[in-house]
Amino acid sequence: AYFVGTRFGHHKLWPRVSPNKSSEGAVGSLVGCVIFCTIYGACLGSASWWAFALLGIAINAFAQLGDLFESALKRAVHVKDSSNLLPGHGGILDRFDSVTFVAPFVWLGLQLLRTGGFEAYRTHRLPVLGPILQRGRSSSGGRPLWRFWGDAGGE
Q1: How many C-alpha atoms does 9 have within 13 Å on its Cβ side?
Q2: How many angstroms separate the CA atoms of 137 and 55, rounded?
Q3: Burial 4-40 (b: 16+ CB within 10 A, else e)
Q4: DSSP 8-state assignment for residue 11
Q5: Is-contact 59 105, C-beta < 8 A?
Q6: Euclidean distance between CA atoms 82 and 79, whole angstroms
Q7: Angle between helical axes of 49-76 and 93-115 (0-180°, round to 10)
Q8: First vs last Cα of the chain: how many Å apart?
Q9: CA-based nearest residue to 70, from 40, 90, 51, 45
Q10: In 10 A of CB 152, how many CB atoms?
Q11: Is the pTM of this model over 0.70?
Q12: Per-residue pLDDT for the chain (155 aa), expressed as one digit of tens each?
């Protein structure tokens, strides 16, 4: 993103929040992330390449949102750096803002790709969320929570 943005970047992504980020850099980041995830998916071999490419698109979107969110927080409180630990780098939060937004999504996406999708959660093949979704009842009607999340399967 940095090299594409500095070389080809002419259109600012969100100048009020992050004046040095360009739309061209964002596209370069997206392409790089999709390529990496597709290669990772081909090496892992647990799902099709396009599933990992879609995961790459989502990862990139969350990473850029995390970066822009942290920049907006700094602008809202009128500080240039979130700490003095890394002078000139925007502070320590700038090193982890994208990871903070992306990590839970990456974990969930890899679990879904590894285990065969949302059905694995619902049928207890993945013990982290399966029991919660099966036994968890909503406050309206007592239907399982997974029924409200668009699963058309029956009980």
Answers
A1: 21
A2: 29
A3: bbeeebeeebeeebbeebbebbbbbbbeebbeebbee
A4: S
A5: yes
A6: 7
A7: 150
A8: 46
A9: 90
A10: 5
A11: no
A12: 778 888 888 899 888 888 888 999 999 999 999 999 999 888 877 678 888 899 999 999 999 998 888 888 888 888 877 777 766 666 777 778 888 889 988 888 877 777 766 555 555 554 554 444 444 444 445 444 444 344 444 44
Token code pair at residue 123? 């049928």
Q: Annotate 42-88 with three-state secondary structure.
A: HHHCCCCHHHHHHHHHHHHHHHHHHHHHHHHHHHHCCCCCCCCCCCC
Which tokens sit at 108? 């969930």
The encoded tokens of residue 138 equal 């909503």
